[in-house]
Specification:
By secondary structure, the chain is mostly helical. It folds into two domains: 1-53; 54-101, no CATH class. Helices cover 53% and strands 6% of the residues. The chain has four helices and two strands. α1 runs antiparallel to α2 (30-39). The protein starts with a helix and ends in a 22-residue tail after the last strand. Bound molecules: zinc ion.
Length: 101
Amino acid sequence: MGTITVGWLLILFIIVGIVTYVADKKGKVAPLWFIYALFLTPIAFIHVLLTSPNVRELEQRAIESGKSKKCPKCAEVVRKEANVCRFCGHDFTRNPNMPPS
Ligand SMILES: [Zn+2]
């Protein structure tokens, strides 16, 4: 019985880990998903794979980490290296007010 229990616990922890990781990557609140996965492991696992990413949260994180910036003209998030907004064509090189990142 002992080995089986340990084996199952290991699998459980791996799945919980995957759920938490995927949830975080999708911009979800990882600690909540961790608890969710602990109690309802199979449901949480399927749920996290099917759930759509929290785009706003991911954009916010990208801005905070310096990978992206927000276009001052159309407020869409574009790559930090972009010189021209891919949404509205705003020219970043002509804007001296953009904060350095
Ligand atoms: Zn724009």
